[in-house]
Amino acid sequence: xxxxxxxxxxxxxxxxxxxxxxxxxxxxxxxxxxxxxxxxxxxxxxxxxxxxxxxxxxxxxxxxxxxxxxxxxxxxxxxxxxxxxxxxxxxxxxxxxxxxxxxxxxxxxxxxxxxxxxxxxxxxxxxxxxxxxxxxx
Length: 137
Fold this sequence. Notes:
The protein has about 140 residues and is of the alpha+beta class. It has five helices and six strands. The longest helix is centred in the last third of the chain and has 20 residues, at about 115-135.
């Protein structure tokens, strides 16, 4: 079960190497109706831009089109808070990885629109299922 690890996100630590964790996360996102619109390889970017070493770390910008359409219809500027970011990174133990998700309830609370909260809760429930499924392997 995912744990709330920051005020803006929740995560699981899984017994999978980094590559396997990324692959499993993508598969589980798809099962919940999310596509990955963006992917940022943080390790590669840090090396290219700063010549700095960094652990394997990817930011996946995930989107569930029907829910995104609903949110954008409710408030056009909500796109500033989309897509939902999911991160996967190598833990200190190379046989383990961390998978974390932005908490859409916390993020979308910024809109101060109560009618958006049910959508945010639905997205959160889906993302929690994704992280739980990755943790189950």
